[in-house]
């Protein structure tokens, strides 16, 4: 089964399936299950976009997908560009991340059950799924880059000084990639992300960033995003051979 995780505005173009509330040991998670396509849709911020990034129950969401039998996750995110050559309206596939979050539950192994587990994230994004994402974007002739995703706490946007620092290390900045990607690895699920670049970050753009700017770019990218999701859902996946499915076997405990 495939899991699609959506962010800002994505619910308006992927809103289909049977709604279910999944009870997990970490809390409840609301999903849409499209049995016909064997797909689970999950909206991080809620269908009404009323949960800020630092309040999302990432553990409940990833656990719910695992409980439903999801093996592969495509995460969609809106991000700001840290580089002038990463242009709003294009896509970016993360190949690594840096995180500057502060108060998020970021592991399933927090010592409560007496276990200490160190999972390898040398390659945090599944290499097999990453290649699928690249193949889909190339086939569609959609412009994209690869690079490092810098994850901040939110919900505020970053200052110009912060962006000046981040741009030396990363390519885009967002608020939701972490801890999703790590939690998926801990659950031995394959996880990749396709980011839609909605704006230049503070100080990169000459103008003050507005919500209207972000939503306008996202609106322009809606059809492309939907095409990418359809291609991913209908992709003929073979048996998983990546290290994601055996992450705990190779973890340090």
Automatic annotation (TrEMBL):
GO MF annotations, alphabetized: S-methyl-5-thioadenosine phosphorylase activity
Keyword terms: Glycosyltransferase, Purine salvage, Transferase
EC number assigned by the record: 2.4.2.44
Similarity comment: Belongs to the PNP/MTAP phosphorylase family. MTAP subfamily.
Species for this entry: Methanococcus maripaludis (strain DSM 14266 / JCM 13030 / NBRC 101832 / S2 / LL)
Binding locations of substrate: 175, 199-201
Organism ancestry: Archaea, Methanobacteriati, Methanobacteriota, Methanomada group, Methanococci
Misc remark: Although this enzyme belongs to the family of MTA phosphorylases based on sequence homology, it has been shown that conserved amino acid substitutions in the substrate binding pocket convert the substrate specificity of this enzyme from 6-aminopurines to 6-oxopurines.
Gene3D superfamilies in UniProt: Nucleoside phosphorylase domain
SUPFAM superfamilies: Purine and uridine phosphorylases
One GO CC term, this protein: cytosol
HAMAP family, alphabetized: MTAP (MF_01963)
UniProt GO BP: L-methionine salvage from methylthioadenosine; purine ribonucleoside salvage
Superkingdom of origin: Archaea
Record note on quaternary structure: Homotrimer.
Reaction equations catalysed: S-methyl-5'-thioinosine + phosphate = 5-(methylsulfanyl)-alpha-D-ribose 1-phosphate + hypoxanthine
Record-annotated Nucleoside phosphorylase domain positions: 2-233
Pathway: Purine metabolism; purine nucleoside salvage
Record-given protein name: Probable S-methyl-5'-thioinosine phosphorylase
Site (Important for substrate specificity): 158, 211
Role description: Catalyzes the reversible phosphorylation of S-methyl-5'-thioinosine (MTI) to hypoxanthine and 5-methylthioribose-1-phosphate. Involved in the breakdown of S-methyl-5'-thioadenosine (MTA), a major by-product of polyamine biosynthesis. Catabolism of (MTA) occurs via deamination to MTI and phosphorolysis to hypoxanthine.
Cited PANTHER family: S-METHYL-5'-THIOADENOSINE PHOSPHORYLASE
Enzyme type, top EC level: transferase
Residues bound to phosphate: 8, 44-45, 176
Pfam families attached to this UniProt entry: PNP_UDP_1
InterPro entries per record: MTAP, Nucleoside_phosphorylase_d, Nucleoside_phosphorylase_sf
């Amino acid at each position: 089964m495939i899991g699609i995780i959506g962010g800002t505005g994505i619910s308006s173009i992927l809103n289909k399936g049977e709604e279910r509330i999944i009870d997990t040991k970490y809390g409840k998670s609301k999903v849409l299950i499209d049995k016909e396509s064997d797909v689970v849709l999950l909206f991080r911020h809620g269908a009404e976009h009323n949960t800020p990034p630092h309040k999302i129950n990432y553990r409940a969401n990833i656990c719910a997908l695992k409980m439903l039998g999801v093996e592969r996750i495509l995460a969609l995110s809106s991000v700001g560009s840290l580089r002038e050559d990463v242009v709003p309206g294009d896509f970016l596939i993360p190949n690594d991340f840096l995180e500057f979050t502060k108060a998020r539950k970021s592991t399933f192994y927090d010592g409560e059950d007496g276990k200490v587990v160190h999972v390898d994230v040398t390659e945090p994004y599944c290499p097999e799924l990453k290649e699928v994402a690249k193949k889909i974007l190339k086939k569609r002739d959609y412009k994209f880059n690869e690079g490092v995703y810098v994850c901040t706490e939110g919900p505020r946007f970053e200052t110009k000084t912060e962006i000046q620092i981040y741009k030396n290390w990363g390519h885009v900045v967002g608020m939701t990639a972490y801890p999703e990607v790590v939690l998926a690895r801990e659950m031995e699920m394959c996880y990749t992300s396709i980011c839609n670049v909605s704006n230049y970050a503070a100080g990169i753009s000459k103008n003050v960033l507005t919500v209207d700017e972000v939503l306008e770019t996202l609106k322009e990218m809606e059809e492309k995003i939907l095409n990418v999701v359809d291609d991913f859902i209908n992709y003929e996946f073979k048996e998983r051979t990546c290290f994601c499915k055996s992450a705990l076997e190779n973890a340090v405990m």
